[in-house]
Every structure is written in C-alpha cells, then in structure tokens.
C-alpha cells in the first residue's frame, strides 16, 4: 500500500512536469477562482459524486498550468495507514496546497506553509467524511486532528518534512 501510494503521487507529479512543458499559458483569474471554489466544495463534501467532473478538472488543471506548482511531502506515518479514503485526502491535500498558493502568491515558496495548508484542507475533508459516516474514522487522521487542536500540528509537519522530504524550513 505504501509503495502504491508513493507511486501514485510520483506519477501525478511527473505528469504535471510533462504537462508544464506544453504550450499552455499561465492560469487565468477565472480558472483560479474556479479552482478555489472546487477546492472548498470538495472540502465540504469530498465524496460527492456530482463533484467528480470538477475534481477531474482540478487535477488536470494543476498538472497543466505552469504558474502553480504543488509539491507534496508524504508523511511516512500516513503510508502505514490503509485508510479507504486515503486517495481522496491526498488529492484534497494537493488541492488545498494549490489554493494556498493562489491566495498567497508571495508565500508560494514557503514549503512549510504550503504543506500545512494542504494538511489543513485534508483535515477539513476528513472531518466532513466522518460527519457523514462515523465509521470512517482513521487513527492517523484522528492523531492529526488532535495535534491541530493542541497546537502542535505545524511542528509535526515541519518534522516529517525534514525527515521524509529533506526540507529544512523553520517555522514562520
């Protein structure tokens, strides 16, 4: 499972690298507005079948636009989690990271803030899933919720980024 998750992320990011070599121009204001809207809708209802087309558009858009580059660091602890909605939360993490970059272009190189925004977005999606289906709990995601509530989530993210992804950014 860990290997499959890692490979899917690599393929997703690699596809984005190849797509960025295309003649595609920068994102438009309308596209960025749509990306933010879809991201927020998916946070509120990440499993909504009526949002499948929007989700697919957002994935493709992030891969294609040259001016929004999302790098995701995978928490090694999440790889051991065999959560049935793990793929959806990884995608939501990507979407929320892109949304942060759109809304905070001056901080787009602040990897820790981008990653933290992604995790926060995935946590909101996780909470929405659990609200609809209390049986859909995950020990990993519940631990992150606890870290968020006790104020240690950003430190945790900084630690796994340094360990798993070689990021040496400090807290800002």
Distinctive features:
172 residues; 8 helices; mainly alpha; 0% strand; disordered N terminus
Structural overview:
The relative contact order is 0.14. The chain has one domain. It has helices at 2-20, 29-44, 52-64, 76-79, 86-103, 111-132, 139-149, 153-165. It has 8 helices and no strands. The radius of gyration is 15 Å and the shape is globular.
Quick structural gist:
With 172 residues, the protein is mainly α.
Number of domains: 1
Percentage beta strand: under 5%
Q: So how many helices?
A: 8
Major β-sheet profile: none
Number of strands: 0
How are the SSEs placed, and which strands pair?
Layout: H1 2-20, H2 29-44, H3 52-64, H4 76-79, H5 86-103, H6 111-132, H7 139-149, H8 153-165
Helix pairs in contact: 1-3, 2-3, 2-5, 5-6, 6-8
